[in-house]
Amino acid sequence: MTQSKKSQYNADVLIVGGGPVGMGLAIELGQRGVKCLVVERYVKPQPIPKGQNLTQRTLEHMHVWGTEKQLRAARTIPPEYGIGGLTAYGTLLSPHAHDWLQRDLVKPYYYTANERLPQYATEEVLRERVAQLPSVEVLYGFDAETIEQDEEGVTLTVTERTADKSSALQVVRAAYAVGCDGSGSRVRQQAGITQTLTSHDRKMVLLVFRSTQLHELLKRYPGKSFYNVLHPDLKGYWKFFGRVDLGNTWFFHAPVPAGTTADNFDFRAYLHESVGAEFEVDFEYIGFWDLRFALADNYRAGRIFVAGDAAHSHPPYGGYGINSGLEDVRNIGWKLAAVLEGWADAKLLDSYDAERRLVFRSTIDDFIAKSIKSDGDFLEAYSPDRDLQAFELALKERASGAVSEVHAFEPNYEGSPIILHSVVESTDVALSVAQTSQRHPSAKGNHRFEANAGHHLAPATLSSGQNVFEKLGSGFTLLALGAHADSVDAFRVAAKEMNVPLTIVEDSFEGEVKRYQAHFVLIRPDHFVAWTSADAQLSTHLPKQVLTLARGAFKN
Fold first, then answer.
1. What is the per-residue pLDDT for 5?
2. What pTM, to 2 d.p., does this model score?
């Protein structure tokens, strides 16, 4: 983009919504020097304890964003206690229970460990990091009113949220805009992006309450921080308890009858029934939401993108929401920066929808909706009252299945237009990748140490003793492991000619890195593998072809 065109903008990117997703995008872009303007309606984070389970992958984002240490320090449950999950049948104190969502099982495949803390604590840490970035400006306490676009940019009108609603409209302009403004996204609606909705016709309650007696009751489950109760009457829909801190504050969500309000339902009795014992309860919050899935039919409309709940929303089952939203912005962030900096093809931005939307479609179908159905099928087929032996055997199999589910959730971008599964050798660099027709981005995969195109890079120790993740650059990174020097030089020359930021890490093909099973591994800025080669020596033209395709110059 030329300087003359830039001069008309207040920012390069407008971010509407400053929750964790919006702030994550601001950091991703701000650390790359991209000028951003964030519009956030709330002056302070809202103290609702949601979005608590943060995966290992999300903590990798936090590490890159310089917030990992601060995030772990903000944790509300002591590290020595544990953050595991449990599923119980009938009531929380039932003798029939098993471990659930043990994400620590896949820790070896990630550079960082998982974490648990309330979303408002995460948001506070991200806000503090944003304040350190000179290229990011935040308008706290402002509403985004209208958004329009033309061929050269996006125009947004905002107003300050004053008590008397007397604030004048302000107009801001940028090259691009990203709506991170939640499930009711005004950005999505005004951009004309439609949604596919799937309603489960269930009204859900969210309770936040205090109870030290519940903590005492649950000491029988040491190291557990969230609990899922399956009851036959609910046909697979959960009663879900979670710790906000250790010993005092809790949240609970579960189905309630249609027409339930804060005043016409006995929530204390509902909690007692769900736990299987009476205990003292001091309510702090009572709210409601409808159980449904919503997926945007496109994550892009011209110069406007959507991310997080603005792009996809679902029941808070399994902790997929905030983690998926943060992965969205890690994906679109580097791509926007690359196009703005001029080293990527504009078509690179199309790959955001191609990758992320299909992954969340799979998250719905292969994990969340599937879980609700399988839980319902289990409750219909088995009962300890009808056949205790068959029930206990089925419950044991479910515990094994819970382990498999954690291993199977491995979002990947196989089949993406910028993932190079194979390259047709040619002097013409504007060529297509030879894709396998069965490949497409998915949330379902298989954790492994092998470097596989389209998949997240697993950590490995280099001969220096450093981890690969300590050497990854902010642009592309090429691992050259026991590779021929002339091929490595060809990548270096091609990257310089194309102005593609490339960090080259050379090492021997020995030790832990051998598990990558490749002499060359090209890693994207978001730490997904773009391409690999088992050959130590490459043809002359291949490095340029690889980089051309990886930066978005693909054929439609």
1. 39
2. 0.93
